[in-house]
């Protein structure tokens, strides 16, 4: 079922979804099961499966020269999505990114997902390669998420890259895109960021999932700005509970977000990461309850592969 259909049928109830990482290369499905099993009782409407682009590593050869190599540490988003769908009978939302894909590879991935009966995709530009400050697209690939959305929408209309294909079957994807309550790191300001988001919606995106935020006021301002700009699709808030003291600096640095003073103050009092994790659970419970009262259609949680804290939150709010 499409995410938009789940939302249309929710009868005023806030739904539950979460995101996980594909396992590292060489690992098996057991780690995925350990992350999903504790959350099944809360009736997740969907499980998102992220995609991670290649990483650049430099290795010294026996002759002393430095060799540049490209590796993928987390392959298998399509296969993982299929395994979750058929083992758990839960809708999955595989992520597709611009970086590392040609447009032909993107089309092939979407064809595979369509053959598997997967109804939803989340389309994002993706991050810069590790160690590189500037985003680079694959030659022959999409540079912007907007281009990725347009390609998927074309396939929904039966338009493929090979123009000679006649009577091509259209796909039928529900398309999600990312929103940034504190604006994208590369946007000059929030107004410009909303303009770009509306372009993706106007191109055919069906719903928005936000990046993590820790102050609901940021989400409410973002939602209001979207509505005033004429964006009418569902907006799903993304929640990540704080779990490590090191995240006080790592999260702002990595995601260009602010952490509320009250949260930082309490986290700095913690003498162990276990205490930080419990604080993160309590903060996210408070966030979730206010967002539910506000009437959000879905609460989406970033699990990062560990679900014990997500389970503790869900037990209190669902």
TrEMBL record:
The lineage of its organism: unclassified sequences, metagenomes, ecological metagenomes. Its EC number is 1.5.1.20. This is 5,10-methylenetetrahydrofolate reductase. It is an enzyme of class 1 (oxidoreductase). One of its GO terms (biological process) is tetrahydrofolate interconversion. Pfam families: MTHFR (PF02219). GO terms for molecular function: FAD binding; methylenetetrahydrofolate reductase [NAD(P)H] activity. Gene3D superfamilies: 3.20.20.220. The keyword Glycoprotein does not apply. Its cofactor is FAD. Keywords: FAD, Flavoprotein, Oxidoreductase. Pathway: One-carbon metabolism; tetrahydrofolate interconversion. GO terms for cellular component: cytosol. Belongs to the methylenetetrahydrofolate reductase family.
């Amino acid at each position: 079922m499409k995410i938009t259909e789940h939302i249309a049928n929710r009868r005023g109830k806030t739904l539950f979804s979460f995101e996980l990482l594909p396992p590292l290369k060489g690992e098996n499905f057991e780690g995925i099961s350990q992350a999903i099993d504790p959350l099944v009782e809360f009736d997740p409407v969907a499980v998102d499966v992220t995609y991670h682009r290649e990483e650049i590593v430099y290795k010294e050869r026996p002759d002393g020269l430095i060799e540049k190599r490209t590796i993928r540490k987390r392959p298998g988003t399509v296969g993982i999505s299929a395994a979750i769908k058929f083992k758990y009978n839960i809708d999955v939302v595989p992520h597709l990114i611009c970086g590392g894909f040609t447009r032909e590879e993107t089309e092939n991935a979407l064809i595979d997902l369509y053959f598997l009966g997967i109804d939803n995709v989340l389309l994002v530009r993706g991050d810069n390669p590790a160690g590189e400050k500037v985003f680079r697209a694959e030659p022959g690939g999409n540079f912007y998420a907007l281009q990725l959305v347009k390609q998927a929408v074309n396939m929904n209309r039966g338009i493929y890259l090979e123009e000679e294909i006649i009577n091509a079957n259209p796909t039928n994807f529900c398309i999600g895109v990312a929103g940034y309550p504190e604006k994208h790191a590369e946007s000059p300001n929030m107004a410009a960021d909303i303009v770009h988001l509306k372009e993706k919606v106007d191109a055919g995106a069906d719903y928005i999932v936000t990046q993590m935020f820790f102050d609901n006021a940021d989400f409410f301002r973002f939602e209001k700005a979207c509505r005033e700009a004429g964006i009418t699709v569902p907006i799903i808030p993304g929640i990540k509970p704080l779990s490590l003291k090191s995240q006080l600096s790592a999260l702002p640095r990595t995601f260009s977000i602010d952490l509320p003073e009250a949260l930082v103050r309490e986290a700095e009092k913690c003498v162990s990461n276990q205490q930080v994790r419990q604080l993160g659970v309590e903060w996210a419970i408070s966030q979730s309850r206010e967002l539910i009262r506000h009437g959000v259609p879905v609460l989406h949680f970033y699990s990062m592969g560990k679900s014990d804290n997500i389970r503790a939150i869900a037990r209190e709010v669902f």
